[in-house]
Amino acid sequence: IIATNPAYQITRLSQSLGFGRDILIALGAGIVFLSCFMLFLNLGASLSARRYDLAVLRVLGARSRTLWLTIVSEGMFIGMIGTVSGIVAGHGIAFAAVVMLSGIEGLVTFEDILRFRWPEVIIAFAGIAASIAAAMIPALTAARTDIASILARAR
Question: From CA 53, how far away is CA 57, in angstroms rounded?
Fold first, then answer.
């Protein structure tokens, strides 16, 4: 039997897992980018479906800034819901993984998984900021709509 140095083995394990961690971070960044793109497309589709309603609001006295704020706040609300549900789902999946993989019980505790950290707060703000950025173009389009041409078509 050969004696091993625990510090050396843990260092070696963390180095071998470092590459996988980088891949997971890149995968997560790609998912965030795709989510922002899908939010942009959905807000654009929602805008085109509600174009007549927004024009009626403008006729009734709503300013273009009000329409802009409506679309941006809708995007921010969707981003907040997605960010919070994503963080909660991530913690739930990590918790389930620790329960299923009984071999890592000594390395990761349940308290480590359930505790929220500062990077998650930064990720939450980044997710909300990305959703606001994705809502900007549809919001500007809604604010600059030509009321007369839209109402002339009348659905």
Answer: 6
pLDDT tens for 90-135 read: 888 877 877 777 665 566 666 777 777 888 888 888 888 888 888 8
DSSP type of residue 116: -
Contact 80, 88 (CB under 8 A): no
CA-based torsion, 72, 48, 55, 143: positive or negative:
positive
pTM, to two decimals: 0.69
CA 79 to chain centre: 6
Task: Give a three-class secondary structure readout of 50-95.
Answer: CHHHHHHHHHCCCCHHHHHHHHHHHHHHHHHHHHHHHHHHHHHHHH
154 touches 52 (CB < 8 A): yes
Q: Which of 33, 130, 119, 112 is nearest to 76 (CA)?
A: 130
